[in-house]
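Replying to the earlier thread about multi-chain prediction with a worked example.

Input:
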Amino acid sequence: MPNLSLFLAQLFNGLALGTLLALISTGLTIILGTLGVLNFAHGALFMVGAYVGYTVMQATHSFVLAVACGALFVLVLGVVIERGLIRLYYERPPEDQILMTFGLSIVIVETVRLIFTGISQRMAVPDWGSGIFNLGFMIYPKYRLIVMIIVVVTLLVLYLVLYRTRLGLVVRAGIEDQRIVGMLGLNVQRTFMVVFGLGAMAAGYAGVIDAPIVSVTPDMGQTVLVESFVVVVIGGLGSFPGAILGGVIAGEIISLTSMFNPAYSQVMLYFVMALVLVLRPQGLFGQEGRE
Amino acid sequence: MSNQKDNRVRRGVSRRSFIKTGLGTAGALMLPSAFLNSAWAKDYPSLGTFPAGASGDSVFVGLSIPLTGAYSATGQDEKHGYELAFEHINAGTGMAAMMDSLKGSQGVLGKKVEYGIGDSETNPNSAVQVQTHFIHDKNAIMISGCSSSAVAIAIEKLAQREKVLNMVGASGSNDTTGKDCQRYGFRSQPSAYMAGKALAPVVAKEIGKNVKVAYLVPDYTYGHTVFNSTQKFTEQQGWKTVSKVVVPVGASDYSSYLLNIANSGADVFVNVCFGNDSVASSKQAQQFGILDKMKMVVPNISPFQASELGADIMAGVYGTLDFWWTMAQRNEYAKTFVDAFDKKYGKKPRWTAHIAYLQSMMWADAVTRAGTFYPPEVIKTLESGKRIPSTLGEVYYRAEDHQMVREVPVVRGKSKSEMRSPEDYFEIVGVTPGETVMPPKGTFGCSLGGYT
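Result:
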């Protein structure tokens, strides 16, 4: 039977895992909510962020610059993708959108593989984040603790943008009813572009922050994509608070299950997702009938 | 021509006639082997892609290699190994120029070897699809390539079904030449059992005998058999297993699994994960302070693990490898391979390239010795137990399970200061002879299928 200190350690780790999952999922959920597009290239954008961050870090040794460049690059990439591709698919059936974004993710992943090869790259933990920290009941890598704080601050900023700005108001209104927003004379097209760019940026930003923890490979976005879908389903499609709660729940499921039987940690995640789908199909924070 | 030769022999053996006969026989042996083959091919019934796949000027080899997906880096290395091997076989250079059977000839039985490469994506279904295409549309006479035991086993089964020879690529699971062994599959990489048996005495000597161990085990055939074998042999040395953490393949964040290891009170951390999983988990183990408290042992070190993690993490890590390029210092065949690879690609080969190269050479050698591409004859030649000098010294396949009996190198990761060149990551601390680490016959329930 696991002891108390391991339980506390896993509980805390679940929270750390969850916040990062929440950040990645918010990008996916606001795109899904506003544009109605299920973006299968979200994981690939996460990976691009990590590679840009890695490249900048190698060249400049500045983590701040790496994060800034990674996030901005993916923001621009997101805007280009929205204008060049996604825009053409708004009126088409969802399966077309899924196929297109899925195909796009393959193109992005293989392009990165062509440039950087499949060998995993090492992005060093910044000096201020190296080492371990004693929390009393456990020791924990300092960088992961700092990442937790960074992510919480970022989520707070995202919250303020979505709930305290005019753009946020339009986005939230768009999630509720796109047509009415358009009829009110608001430029929905521009909002869509900005939202897709911001959603992509959230993924790219998370990619750079996660890069020193995981191994940077062209396929690193795959697991992330699947897990963030689960988070969005649990939290409710298009719901920002849902993504955060869903992220934390997913992190805790993975962490706490692995204390008893690690092989079942992913299975449990899907089990809980299935349970939510049966008991509350719209997700914890989702609204019934929302597309 | 043969009648004339026979008449000469019957006249009595004078010195002159002896020399003449000798020259005649040698001349007959040097006849274009394609001529001989086309004559002999008629004696064998159709089977698999034979004789259709061996009737032209060239033969086709189907390769399913992970060019995308988690094992794409090793796939690239493996691809280079095959390319070099077939280049050498077709030109009669490299190791082909050193092997008794292939010396002085170009191609295999006078036929040029052509090959096609398909992306297996480290996925058994994709690999089977690729090879099915090569067998049915290209009449592949031999199939090879893989970087995962799950894929290797799927391809072996396909080979048995289709009656096409399969020289297995990278695969470390006991099942490949154990419960899933096939008459048509031959494996050169040491099995988990062989690696564990070679490794255990070395780590017990270097790390100590009375130690507690925690394992990180990927959840598939490779992970489970490596765990079983490593545990078996280290426990014989006095090691005690205190934790076994089974993890899903392809996880990116190992924190929750590593917390269990950190909390286990172990002295040694045995990381069974492979490829990118091994890199990510080792890196995170260091971040969690596990590598400060525990010695890391990696029973089967991934081809690019050291270059991906760097000497700061890999220094002092013990493990086994199929092959390491510094083995070129002790073996002419290995030297030829490593030098040619370095010259062609500007880097040292990893063991995935070595498997590709060696297995291709062993196939070309066996076909030449069999004198035909007819699969059962080639299989019987490979099963004959004849010792073949190679990059690993003398090797042969065991007839009972088709596992290559070959030496197993045990290595220790060098620290940065010990490295003499950028790719000099490992010191070979021991090379265990193959015969001493083979499992007793029947250990893993191998039952080879039929020849036809």
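Chain A has one domain: 12-219.

Feel free to reuse this layout for your own posts.
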